[in-house]
Design a protein that fits this description.
The strands form 2 sheets. Strands 4-3-6-7 form a 4-stranded mixed beta sheet, sandwiched between helices. Helix 1 packs parallel to helix 3, helix 4 packs parallel to helix 7 and helix 6 packs across helix 8. Helices cover 37% and strands 9% of the residues. It folds into 2 domains: 144 residues, Glutaredoxin; 145 residues, Up-down Bundle (Glutathione S-transferase Yfyf (Class Pi), Chain A, domain 2). The protein is an alpha+beta fold. The chain has 9 helices and 7 strands. The longest helix is centred in the middle third of the chain and has 22 residues. The radius of gyration is 19 Å and the shape is globular.
Length: 310
């Protein structure tokens, strides 16, 4: 995917992303400022001020796109979408209404001319100060959830105080073993590292399958942030991760409770429009380190998009 080193683009990987045992180690996000309702952070929640760099194929960006829909913030925050197949210089945009950038790394250079690190979506940009606010998806969705009251068209709280401890506990499991677990399978550089990640991934999916046999959603009978952090991984699993990341013990379609749950989330108003299965096939099979030939599979397997029984 490439990185910036002292502000210069290089088609390389950060060495700290791979352990001595061949395990994929995700590097922490670099920009961690926060938008607040009162502006005490230096970034005040305002309609029209912020811009998101996203990609339909990226699960981390998908979280943010879902929260824009759930909170009805589409008219308040603009979005630029990267081309899923163009990767020679990282995330590439045909159209960027905020800055006219062609490549996402240009936003990082503008924010910090000497930046060293990964260039990732989602990236939350402040048009007023011409700075990156944040590029950590879990923090961006919290801001969208809580800081835009009066601007958001829907004030539903997906991280309610009474459920936070359980949401956090589920998030920890889901992130470590599933959200990041599929990447630990796909980007492993030794057989041992791959098999450890694989076993951990399917152990966690089995655990959630059993959990969903007892309740409708991950934390009871209503959707929370935990569900919307899991959902982007689930919708990509059968079309992409099963094959290209070698996560091939089972498809999500083989889990009755996870399949029911996935379909129910997919049917939440507005969510289906954020789901692009063919883009997942194109995007993941365009990653050179897992598919050097660049040949894109012709089929797209996404049974959750079909009505039950068809």
């Amino acid at each position: 995917m490439g990185v910036l080193i002292e502000g210069a683009w290089r088609d390389e990987e950060l060495p700290q992303e791979t352990s001595s045992g061949g395990e994929f180690k995700r590097v922490a996000s670099a920009f961690r400022d926060r938008i607040t309702a009162d502006g005490s952070s230096g970034f005040k929640a305002e309609a029209g001020r912020y811009h998101v760099y996203a990609a339909w194929n990226c699960p981390w960006a998908h979280r943010v796109l879902i929260f824009l829909v759930l909170k009805k913030l589409q008219s308040a925050i603009s979005v630029a979408y990267a081309d899923p197949a163009l990767r020679e210089q990282g995330w590439t945009f045909h159209e960027d209404p905020a800055n006219g950038f062609r490549y996402l790394y240009q936003a990082y250079q503008a924010a910090d001319p000497r930046y060293t690190g990964k260039v990732t979506v989602p990236t939350l940009w402040d048009k007023k100060t011409r700075r990156i606010v944040n590029n950590e998806s879990s923090e961006i969705i919290r801001m969208l959830n809580s800081e835009f009251r009066g601007i958001a068209g829907d004030d539903t709280d997906y991280y309610p105080e009474a459920l936070r401890a359980e949401v956090d506990r589920v998030n920890e499991l889901v992130y470590a073993k599933i959200n990041n677990g599929v990447y630990r399978c796909g980007f492993a550089k030794t057989q041992e590292a791959y098999e450890a990640a694989y076993d951990s991934l399917f152990e966690a999916l089995d655990q959630l399958e059993a959990r969903l046999a007892q309740q409708r959603f991950l934390v009871g009978d209503r959707t929370t942030e935990a569900d919307w952090r899991l959902f982007p991984t689930l919708v990509r699993f059968d079309p992409a991760y099963f094959s290209v990341f070698r996560c091939n013990k089972k498809r999500i379609a083989d889990y009755p409770n996870l399949s029911r749950y996935l379909r129910e989330l997919y049917r939440v108003p507005g969510v289906a429009a954020t789901v692009k299965p063919r883009t997942y096939v194109i995007g993941y099979w365009s990653i050179k380190k897992v598919n050097p030939s660049g040949i894109i599979p012709k089929g797209t397997y996404a049974p959750y998009t079909e009505e039950e029984g068809k």
